[in-house]
Amino acid sequence: GSFILPFATAIITAQALAATTTVSLEAPRTVSEDVSVERDEGLIPSELIKVGVRAPDFTVTSLEDETVQLSSFRGKVVVLSFWFRPCGACSYELDQLQRFNDWISDEDAPVVSLVMDEYSHWKSAGAEEEDVPDRRESTRRYLADRELSLDVLVDPVSRPVGAAYGVRAYPTRVVIDPDGRVSAVSVGKRDDRLVDILKSESLAAWHAWQARQLHGR
After folding, report:
1. Helix 88-107 vs helix 194-214: angle between axes, to the nearest 10 degrees?
2. Which of 40, 112, 129, 214 has the most crowded CB, counting CB atoms within 10 A?
3. For residue 67, what are the β-bridge partners?
């Protein structure tokens, strides 16, 4: 079933969030990159992000050590899937995300599919950040063994991205429209219709954006 994140893990308080719309987090020693996460004022990280709000921007590295910024995909729909390797539902979902990726390529769809890895730098409650193992290489092998070619990003030890989106369970999927606003959110295991659901949600976000462009909104 779905994996529920322990409550003690990396929560950013609403008070701290209200004080600023941009939070810069110093990278722990096991993470090579600086991490910057932008959030809307009033968004409470302990609650799942809501449809209609601006998706928090982030800059992290991929599993292949490339720098990726969410806002660089403006003009396209982004499907962001939060993933945790020990989660059975997440493992089941990877094959469907691969099929979804294949559809994007085959149809040249205006969609980007990103998987946010919440496991490779996961810190258990009470652990010191410098003692957290770097599991990126084992994650690379895991994906290679399953012959998956997904765009996987790595959330650092402090979970700035997962916290900004209010992710408390896995898998969590967020569809972001070309203007950078959340158009659909879903949590937990979906059945074999997931690919069709993601197609429908991403195309709906695309067509709604096109209609707004046409009418100058």
Report:
1. 50
2. 112
3. 61
101 HSE (CA, 13 A, CB side): 16
Distance CA 113, CA 62 (A): 13
CB 177 within 8 A of CB 111: no
158, two tokens: 């402090």
Kindly indicate the confidence band of residue 201, based on its pLDDT and cuts at 50, 70 and 90. very high
Q: What is the pLDDT of residues 147-177, one digit of tens each?
A: 999 999 999 887 899 999 999 888 999 999 9
Q: How many CA atoms lie within 13 A of 49 on its CB side?
A: 30
Residues 37, 38, 40, CA angle at the centre, nearest 5°? 140
> CA-CA-CA-CA torsion for 168, 82, 99, 85, nearest 10 degrees?
-90
Sign of CA dihedral 32, 47, 115, 141: positive
What pLDDT score was predicted for residue 99? 96
pTM as predicted: 0.78
